[in-house]
Each structure stands twice: as structure tokens, then as C-alpha cells.
Design brief:
Layout lengths: L11 E5 L4 H12 L4 E6 L2 H15 L4 E5 L5 H15 L4 E4 L14 H29 L2 E6 L12 H24 L3 E6 L4 E2 L14 E2 L1 H12 L8 E2 L5
Helix pairs in contact: 1-2, 1-6, 3-4, 4-5
The chain binds NADP nicotinamide-adenine-dinucleotide phosphate (NAP).
Length: about 240
């Protein structure tokens, strides 16, 4: 059976945390590659708007659209997915990129710190997938891209809640992939598990800091993953500085 394909120029992407860092690099590469619409969503409206303006100016078209929401709020998360689908007709690529760490050791971990990290990094992603899935199924097309981490494969003493959240995101992604396989849905699931990514030194001719990779490698890897045949399962994309 041939699975439905769709050119990037017809696709609508939703990137959480798309106003800064890795999410911004993802938004830039998709917009410059001609995606029909790229919605970048997080809490800070001013940051999102500035990023959208800059990326739109760079590609000479109104492709990047800001949307303010808090991923820790279920109603706002549902509203984001429904709003993108209503405004643009589809959610073809969902990038679960919003994330943060609260550096509390195993002995010092707090309820507030744990909740903040788990709710932002994994519960919100699960909510967004749940809301976006019916639109992907309706279109018979979708890609879910999760930004986990090297800390989703290895534990580090200074950030136990972050590691737990990034391991959890990978476990959730496996269940989602199995669900798509069992139901026959044309939905692929990719996970990024990067080591350190320099999100401060991002200029084309700028060297990343020692031990980190330039953020453009995340953007290139995203385009590569999305370009693969629909039948191909690419599980985890592990990128590290050597
Ligand atoms: N940089 C690295 O070395 C590295 C390595 C491995 C994995 N990662 C992962 O990559 C992803 C992006 O990180 P980054 O390095 O690009 O850092 P970043 O610039 O701080 O990006 C994190 C994004 O998450 C958003 N966010 C945080 N809380 C949110 C909330 N409650 N609701 C909605 N959005 C929220 C932030 O936007 P607002 O503040 O506007 O909400 C921000 O745009 C994260 O998941 C991170 O764990 C990063």
C-alpha cells in the first residue's frame, strides 16, 4: 500500500517553543523551504512576534505565524491545535519542542520543580498530540517530532526531573508510533536526542561553543527526516559534538 505524501509547500507546521533556540531554527528552515504555514507557539507573545517578523522578512513571505499559549494549561493547548487546524486546514507537522529544566538534585527536588518540568516537557506534548491527531487522521498525513535530549537516554545528577521528563517523552513516542502502526494511520514519529546545542551563537559564520553543536544541524536534520519515504521509520536522531 502506498501511503499518502504531501509536498512541504502544502504543509502546515506547528512548533512549540518556536520563538527561540532550536524551535526558531526549525521554524526558519521550514519557512525558507516553502512550508505553507509555520505556527510558532509559546508564552511570550513579543518574542514570538519578533521571530515571526524576522523569519518572514528573510523568506519574503508571510509564512510564520505567532500564537501565545501556555503548554501547562489544557484549555489553551487544545485551543492552539483547534485554532491552527481551523485557520490553515491541517496540522501536518507537530514539533513538540517546548521544554525547560529545573536544576534540583535528587535530594533537593521540590514538588513545584518536578511538576513544572514534567508538565511542560511531557504532559503538554501528550495533550497536543491528542488534540492534533484527529486532524492528521482526517488528512491521512502527519509527522510528530519530539525534541527529547541526550538526557532522555542518560541520567545526570544535576537534573533528575529533566531526565525523567525526556525519558518519558521517548516512552510516550514509542506508544504513539505503535498506535499509528496498529491503526494504519499515516503518521510518523521522530525523536531528537541532542547533546548540547548552542542556541546563543547562531550566525552562519559563528562557531558554536566548545562541546556544543551549531543549531543549524538540528534544522538540517529535521528537513532530512521529513524528506524520508512515508514507509520509513527513523526512530531517534542522536546528535552530539565530537
Ligand atoms: N539547547 C540544548 O543544548 C538542548 C539539548 C537537548 C535538548 N534540548 C531541548 O530542546 C528544546 C528547546 O530548547 P532550546 O535549547 O531551544 O531552549 P529555549 O530557547 O529556552 O526554548 C525553550 C522554549 O520552550 C518554551 N516554553 C517554555 N515553557 C513553556 C510553556 N509553559 N508553554 C509553552 N512554551 C514554553 C519557551 O518559550 P516561552 O518562554 O515564550 O514560553 C522557549 O521558546 C527543549 O525541549 C530542550 O529541553 C535542548
Amino acid at each position: 500500500m502506498t501511503l499518502r505524501n504531501k509536498p512541504l509547500t502544502e504543509q502546515v507546521a506547528l512548533i512549540t517553543g518556536g520563538g527561540t533556540g532550536i524551535g526558531r531554527a526549525f521554524a526558519g528552515v521550514l519557512a525558507e523551504s516553502g512550508a505553507r504555514a509555520v505556527v510558532i507557539a509559546s508564552r511570550r507573545e513579543d518574542v514570538l512576534k519578533a521571530t515571526a517578523d524576522e523569519l518572514n522578512a528573510r523568506c519574503g513571505a508571510e509564512r510564520v505565524h505567532p500564537y501565545a499559549f501556555d503548554i501547562r494549561d489544557l484549555a489553551q493547548t487544545d485551543a492552539l491545535a483547534h485554532s491552527v487546524a481551523q485557520r490553515f486546514g491541517a496540522i501536518d507537522v507537530l514539533v513538540n519542542n517546548s521544554g525547560l529544566a529545573v536544576p534540583e538534585s535528587v535530594e533537593a527536588i521540590t514538588e513545584a520543580g518536578w511538576d513544572k518540568v514534567l508538565e511542560t516537557n511531557v504532559r503538554g506534548a501528550m495533550w497536543l498530540v491528542r488534540a492534533a491527531l484527529p486532524y492528521m487522521i482526517r488528512e491521512d498525513f502527519g509527522d510528530v517530532v519530539n525534541v527529547s535530549s541526550q538526557a532522555g537516554k542518560n541520567g545526570y545528577a544535576d537534573v533528575p526531573s529533566y531526565c525523567a521528563s525526556k525519558f518519558a517523552l521517548l516512552g510516550y513516542a514509542e506508544s504513539l508510533r505503535d498506535h499509528a502502526r496498529k491503526t494504519g494511520a499515516n503518521i510518523r514519529v521522530f525523536n531528537f536526542c541532542p547533546g548540547l546545542v548552542d542556541v546563543d551563537h547562531t550566525g552562519a559564520d559563528v562557531e558554536p561553543r566548545a562541546g556544543a553543536i551549531h543549531v543549524r544541524n538540528m534544522a538540517r536534520a529535521l528537513l532530512f527526516a521529513l524528506s524520508l519515504d512515508r514507509e520509513v521509520v527513523l526512530e531517534d536522531i542522536n546528535l552530539y559534538a565530537r
